[in-house]
Structure formats: structure tokens, C-alpha cells
Amino acid sequence: MLSRRPARQRNGGHHDAAPRCKAQASGSKVPSSPPLPVETRGRNADLPALVAEILSRQAQELGVDCSGLAPAAMAVLRRHRFPGNVRELENVLRTALVACEGARIDASHLPIQQSASKSAFTLPQGGIDLDALERDIIKQAMQRAQGNRTRAATLLGLTRDQVRYRLSKIAESAEE
């Protein structure tokens, strides 16, 4: 259907986006989904089947061989509320698939804060060279991702462009 309105107006301000639903276009609040299964809701039994389905699909998309989750990893998933609902669970599992080096995802592969008191890094008494640390982390991620910037970005919780920028920064400092 042809319209006299520009694409930006038809698509809610975005040139390439599909038209938004009437509730969004009118400024109404769109109801959000509740968090994923938590032990108090009694829906924890759904989680293993959901995880298996998501892992199977994502492993096929990424071309990764994964036999499933270790019991400790499933325990971490059961304790997490997933305020982002299924999308957050999918992102957590995709990151774990990329980080997993074996056939099974362990709790250490999950990008979920497992304990508020446990820090991922302890600052040495003498301090650190932050640029050198960043350089080492980027290089390790690129090696683990076999040179694939998108997979390295997923490992680091960055975008592909952020990894590209940091790599160019590393290359510039090496030339100096």
C-alpha cells in the first residue's frame, strides 16, 4: 500500500523498522513479561526443557558441539531470576556456548554474577597497567574465538565495533 507519509513517520521514527503496534505508537504502556521461572513460583521444572531447546538451536546456529549443561551450571540458572525473561536466558546461553571449550557448559562459562561477595578480579597492592591488561584480555578473547571478532565480542560482553576499536588502539600503540 502506498502512503504519502514519509517512511520515518510510518515506522515510528525509524527508516528501516517495521511499523510499531498501535499501543506503542499511541504512547501507551505495553505490558512486560514476568521474570522467568524462580523457585518461589514453582515453574523451575520448565527450565531444563527450555534450556535444552535453546542450547540445541543456538549450538546449531553457531556450529558448536555441546552436549548440555553440567549440574552446577543448571543450579546457577535455577537461582537466577532472569529479569529479561527468555531473551536474557538466550543471551546467557549463547555467551556460554561461545566461552565453552569442551562439550559441556560449566557454571564458570555462564556470564551470571554468582555471588555478590566474590569478585572476578582483585587489584594487586602495587596497582596495574590497565592498558596492558586490556591488551592481554582482548588478545586472549581473539585467540579463543579463533580470530572471529563477533565471537570475541560475545566473550567480552562488548559489541563487534567495540572490539574492532580496541584492536585498532592496540595496533596503534604497537606502531609507536
The portion of residues forming beta strands comes to under 5%
CATH fold group of the domain at 39-109: Helicase, Ruva Protein, domain 3
Q: Which architecture name of the domain at 39-109 does CATH use?
A: Orthogonal Bundle
How many extended strands? 2
Structural class: mainly alpha
Number of helices: 8
CATH class category name of the domain at 39-109: Mainly Alpha
Q: Determine the oligomeric state from the structure.
A: single chain
Structure description:
The chain has 176 residues and is mainly α. Among the domains are: 71 residues, Helicase, Ruva Protein, domain 3 (Orthogonal Bundle), CATH 1.10.8.60; 46 residues, Orthogonal Bundle (Arc Repressor Mutant, subunit A). Helices cover 49% and strands 2% of the residues. It has a two-stranded parallel ribbon with strand order 1-2. The longest helix is centred in the first third of the chain and has 16 residues. The protein is globular, with a radius of gyration of 21 Å. The N and C termini lie far apart (58 Å). 15% of the residues are buried. About 14% of the residues have low confidence.
Summarize the structure.
This protein is mainly alpha-helical. The protein has helices at residues 7-10, 22-25, 47-62, 71-79, 85-99, 130-144, 149-156, 160-175, and strands spanning 68-69, 104-105. A two-stranded parallel sheet has the order 1-2.
